[in-house]
Design a protein that fits this description.
Blueprint (H helix, E strand, L loop, with lengths): L1 H6 L21 H27 L4 H19 L14 H9 L11 H17 L13 H10 L1 H13 L5 H15 L4 H4 L6 H4 L11 E4 L1 H10 L3 E6 L5 H14 L4 E8 L11 H12 L4 H16 L2 E5 L12 H4 L1 H8 L3 E5 H8 L11 H4 L8 E6 L12 H13 L5 E5 L2
Parallel strand pairs: 1-7, 2-3, 2-5, 3-4, 5-6
Antiparallel strand pairs: 6-7
Helix pairs in contact: 2-3, 2-5, 6-13, 7-12, 8-11, 8-12, 13-14
Amino acid sequence: MAHLIDSVKSYFSGPELPPKLCGQHTDTFCYMSIKDRHPVTITKIIDQVYQIGLREEDLQQDAKDVAAKLSRLKNRLQTDKEIEPLEGAGEDVELWNTVIEQLEPNTWFTAPWLTVECYLYRYIHEVFQETTHFQYPQYDTFRAEKDTGLLASLDNISQISRTLEHSRNQPTELVLREFIKLSLWGNKTDLSLLKHFNLELGDVQSASVEGLDDMILCNDLEKVVQYIMSLKDAKVDIVLDNAGYELFGDLCLGEVLLRTPHVSSVTFHMKSIPWFVSDVTTNDMDFIIRTLSGSPEELLADLGRLWESRFTYKTFSRTQHPFWTTCHPFADMSRVAPDLYQDLARSDFVFLKGDLNYRKLVGDRQWDHVTELRAAVEGFNPGPLCALRTIKSDSIVGCKKGVVERLLKEDKDKLFCGAYAVISSNL
C-alpha cells in the first residue's frame, strides 16, 4: 500500500497544466452537476430505501441508517462542507483517505470535480456496505433502474441484432465503421442524466446512426478502422460505461471484431461496485446475457447463447479492477495500478467508453479545446486507444478552433446532454 500512497501525490503535483474542473465556476456543467444533479441522485436513493423500509419490517433499521447517513451527506454537499474521510473496511479506504487528506481546498464546490463525483458514489457504496441487508453484490441500489432500462430498450436492441445479422456479407471496413458508431451513440443512454434534461429512453436511443456524423466534433474513425484492419489475431479491450442498451452495442462491436481475421479475443472491463448509476457490473453483464438467451425472439436468443459460449471459451472475457472506481486520472494508472496498466499494454487496441473514462483520460482539466489528445493525456500511453464518448461534461479536446465555443453560446444544454460526440484516438 505504501507505494500507492506515495503515488497519490502525483494527483496534486506536476508541470504547469490547466486547472482541474471544480464547482467554483457557476457557468459550467460541473457546477450545475454538483448543485442540482448530485442532490437529486442522493434523494432518489433515500426515497428508495425508505419505501423498502415501509414494505419490509426486518429491513427498517437498515433503511433508516442509510437514509440518515445519505441525508447528512446531501446536507454537507449543498452547504459546501469539507469532504470527510471514509471509515469502512474496504481495501481502497487508505488510498481514498490519502487523496482526501491532500485536497486543498477540500469542499464539495472547491475540490476537483472528478474527485468529488467519484467520492460521492464511493461514499454511497460504503453506506450500503455498513448495513446487514443492503450489501453489494446481493443488493445494488441502481439495479432496478438498470434492468428496467434494458427491458425498455428491447425494440431497438432487436433492430440492431438484425443489422448485425445482415452485416455478415458486407465489407469488413463498412461493418466496423457502422458498429463503432453504434457503440459510440449507445453512450447517450446515461440514466444519471435523463431526468436532468427531461429526456426519456426513446429520446436518446436509435437503432440507426445515419445522419449523425456532423455531430461528431472530433472524428478519428478512419484512423481507427484502418489500424484494426492492419492487425492479425489481435486482442482488443473495451473499457465499458453504461449497462443495458449501450452494453448491447458494445457486445455487438466485440462480435463484429471477432468475425474478422484481425481480432481473436475481446476483453470487457467492468466496475467492481455500483458506480455512477448505470455503469456495468458483473450483475449487469449476467442480466443482459440471461435476458437475451431467454428472449422469445430467436435472433436475440441466439445472440445470448452465442455470447455466453464466447465467455465460456474465452474469445470474450470480462474483468474488473478497483482502479476504475478511484478518482485517479489515467495518467496515474502506471503508478497506482501498474498491473492494470501492464494488462492494457498487452492489448493491441483499447476502446474507452463514455464520459467518465474520457474525463479521466484527459485529467478532467480546463484544456483549450484545440489541444491534441496526445498532450492532454499527460503521458498515459499503454498503447493504441480510442475514446468513444458522447459529450456530457466540460472537458473536450481535439476540436477545431471555435467549434466548442460556438456551441456553448448557441445551446449549452444540448452540448452536454449527449447530442454531440467524439471519436478520439492517439494513433
